[in-house]
Write a structure and sequence with these properties.
Number of helices: 4
Order of helices and strands: HHHH
Distance between the termini: 183 Å
Shape: rod-shaped
Structural class: mainly alpha
Length: 194
């Protein structure tokens, strides 16, 4: 059962405790801090009073004496000059970094172009070499064809010579046999004469 008669002081203490915990004091949080006691209407009324007092205290704490206009202008001018100097320094720094990046990019581009040119030169030399090799290959094929013709003719001549040799050997045998026969006959004729 809810406790009767909560006071403004209790609500204010609960709200201050909640603010010290870096939270926003709501009706529900204040009621929980009070041990779930007090009506919502009473807590709302005292919490609104506390808020008004709290904001007024904060406003008084933050109130500053009025500064004369020329001092304000001087402070603004100094702040403007500092900001302007900082901005110029940042712009110079960014410009310097950009210039360095551009210089690096230009160096990389030049290196890439040089590499491209070297690659193109190598490719051109390779193409010339390929063309020479193709020409040499064509000449070698022609020479090979001619050599095959020469070999075929040589084989034909060798076959003809072999035939002629066989014929000569056959004729030689016939002559030798005839000579041997004549020799034998002449030997027999001599023997008979003796």
């Amino acid at each position: 059962m809810a406790r009767l008669g909560i006071s403004y002081v209790e609500v204010a203490e609960a709200a201050n405790t909640i603010v010290q915990q870096h939270q926003n004091p709501t009706i529900e949080k204040v009621r929980i801090a009070l041990g779930n006691t007090g009506s919502l209407a009473t807590i709302s009324k005292y919490l609104n009073q506390w808020r008004a007092q709290h904001f007024e205290n904060q406003a008084n704490a933050l109130a500053t004496p009025v500064i004369p206009a020329n001092e304000v202008n001087h402070v603004i001018a100094n702040a403007w000059e500092q900001l302007n100097t900082q901005a110029q320094q940042q712009v110079e720094k960014i410009k310097q970094e950009s210039d360095e990046k551009v210089a690096v990019a230009l160096q990389e581009k030049a290196a890439a172009e040089q590499q491209r040119d070297e690659t193109l030169n190598s490719l051109e030399k390779a193409n010339k070499k390929v063309n020479h090799l193709e020409t040499d290959l064509i000449l070698l094929k022609k020479e090979l064809t001619e050599m095959r013709h020469i070999q075929a003719r040589a084989e034909e001549r060798a076959a003809e010579h072999e035939k002629m040799l066989n014929v000569l050997q056959s004729e030689s045998k016939t002559y030798v046999q005839a000579l041997e026969k004549i020799h034998a006959e002449s030997q027999q004729g001599l023997k008979q004469q003796l």
